[in-house]
Fold this protein.
Amino acid sequence: MKDRGWLVLTVAAIGMLALPFLRDQFGFPVFYLVFLSGVLFWTAQATSWNILSGYSGYFSFGQGAFFGVGVYSVAFFFARRGLSWWVGVLLGGLLSMLLALILGTIAFRLRQLRGEIFALLTLAIPFILAAVVRLSRTIDGGQGVGIPVPSYPDMIGPFQHFYFVLSALVALIALALAYGMQRTRYGWALFAIHDDEQVAEGLGVPTFRYKMIAIAVTGLLGGLSGAVFALNLGHVSPEGTFNLRVPLFAIVMSALGGRRHWAGPMVGALYIYTLQNRLSAAGFEGWSLIVLGAILISLILFAPDGLMSRFTRRPWTVTAVLVGVLVAMTALGTGLIIDRLAVALLVAAVTAFLPRRATADTRPPETARGLSGLEQDPGGDEARPPELGRPLVSVADVTKSFGGVRALAGVSITVSEGELVGLVGPNGSGKTTLVNVISGTLRPTSGSITVAGFDIAGLQPHRISHLGLARTYQIPRPFPTLTVRDNVAIAIMFGREPRGLYSSREAADEHLAMVGLAELAHAYPPGINLHERQLLEMARAIATRPKVLLLDEALAGLNPVEIDNAVAVVRRIHRSGVAIVLVEHLLRVVNQLSTRIIVLDQGLLLAEGEPAEVLKDPAVVATYLGKQPHA
Amino acid sequence: MNELQSIIFGALTGSSFALIALGVSLTWGFLKVINISHFGLVLIGSYLTFQVATSTGMDPIATVVVTAPAMFVLGATIQWVFERFQVSELNSLLIGYGLLIIIIQVVQNTWSADFQRMDPSLNPYFTRSIAIGQLRFPVATLLAAGFAIALVLVAHFVLEKTYAGRALQAFGQDRQIAGAFGIDHRLLGILLAGTIGASGAIAGMLYALGQTLSPDAPFEWIGRVFAIVILGGIGNVTGTLYAGLLVGAVSGIVAFIWSASVAPLVVFSLVVLALIFRPQGLFLRKGGH
């Protein structure tokens, strides 16, 4: 049952490819195949765009470039050089993928690449390509290139059949890739990147690699689809190819259908193409852009998730309405088939947007949540010091400067197996900076850090995560569009021993139980409170199966009851065999939990040792309470 | 002498694009809205100038008395919607695009897809040119550049020297904090968007003085204008002007030496390099980071 989608796709593929051969039996006009070819072309383009921009959130205006490389590969290799049409098509896909990889290598290597900068970078590429094509006499030279009708086996029938089969093949490849990615770690890595790239990297997701995969797939599909499209054109020109039409339609279609669902772009393509087709057929050609613009604006304002997310909430109702309207109109004999399709699509969309009957809130009442999920911790304060083992983290003489400010000025610490180290110090003493350099989020200015015996200099954060280091953030940063359980599942999928989506989900439940969030597995992070989000951070961190866990002020902003609960969770994690570094302001908690305390002040190590001794140290007292004149 | 002519002519043309770019850059920098619909306002402005001048016989420059208030209201309304729905930066791009295609279609339905141009008797600026030494420049181009440069300088002065300008800068840096210090960000944002809309009307008027109008024109502007916005630095007023002059001059000289179709290659390669090496823009603001 899990892979029902593959069945649907296979059946759709066979049905599609058989369509031209059934035409003689059923005798429907070739116009329908031409119409469907249009839908399929836009399905391929929108799906291609969506894999990079919808899944990973890197918004691209470069679709015209990938499309254009495909178009001009056919123009050059097939029309000008006289190679077979399929060589032109394949080269179109490959060259476009190459362009995508070059673009990705440049863009994704940039430090602090912001989404808008990527969008603008991709906006510039089609202009450059258009200029090159216009200038180069060998490619085009500005006059345009005529494309002859390709030769293909006679059994396929008229050219429209041939073009339909090719469009269907490319669209099916695109859909299969989009579907396959959504079902596997490839898609989930991109979803995590979409929500919070830094956190994803810290949880073990090799973000650079997955972004490159996404952009390569987008380039390949955009190029293949453009190349096939060119076979249908007869004549291509730089102006008609490298314009904003393709990217903008791809964007609108994906936004309409839904950017998070593999079928979203297809649904969007079907709606927009059908609607435009009917509007121009009805003589409202002058209205098509107005309708399109109005749909886009109202969707973004009122339903930014797109149609597909509405459909999946009530799939049977929508299907029933769609089929019902089609059958009813056919029985009554109103309109052409396309008219019936257009009406049915609109009615289905309206049905999907009808308000739902109020369902009972599945969330357990406030008092029953979280806290009660934990049995009282029997251990109390008589925590025995666990066995100390070999060192896991060694920080040797590390400094970190921001401009002229030294956040860390030569700090050396060690954390060993079995320890629970309390890291304390006043605001600005360098605690969070230390956490950031150990987890690889920041590079130290000088000094060295080893995790589990490996020097982490130059390692990307996901590699450090795989060495056995996990962290939480002071302000929780869950992936907002994934459920609580999937937040944890991501960390398992990309752990040291990668696992599939389904087994990761099952394993995620254990970690949720460990922190007492089992009941909220299906909630979304924006709907849970601060304490629960901090527990989620911890669950996600332990799901990477760390040897050392850095908890950055995991108790900040909690009320006393919640603090007690969080303390119990931290202790349980520690007992499960994870060494912990606890950054905390509350000395009571640190004193209660820690096996050792490290005090930082102004980037320097001020004191280190047994909790009771350190907290009596006059220097520590002075730092915390201020110097008292003759107290 | 012809090289000089093409560089200066290019720079003058570029500076008038800088006026459009200024609108995009300011809404992006201060209001966090990537306002593609601004191109639509410029388009409407140019057609309204054409229409008002043609039907009333008014001097085309004087038509801004009508068009600027109209575009002020339109710009302010759009910003009100963005505020009302708390639209994110990315979604503002999509909504702006939706508005732009609606505007293009409305313009096309109203004035047809054919090229339109003001009658020469109504638009004396189109045909005349002025000789400066051995160089000759069309009056329309000089006017466009003059207006654009003057407006950019006014914008710079207002932002740097007035209370409203300071408040806007604070708002651009951190909305919530600025709000906490008593800046009515919604009103300020709507006023700024209205003013930018009015500047779009002026840009449209200037375009109508020297060019034939077509509903598709915005798609020709988008690339060049975004190039200027990026090179100038987002939200950087004087940077936008310099970038406009630079892009124009480079296009002019490349077109002269080589061919006009090479110009985009050079300009957009410059943009790619700038994005990689100086994503904050070529021209640093004083006190900027």
Remarks:
- The beta strands of chain B are 129-132, 135-138.
- The CA atoms of residues 107 and 215 of chain B lie 6 Å apart.
- The mean pLDDT of chain B is 86.
- Residues 18-218 of chain B form one domain.
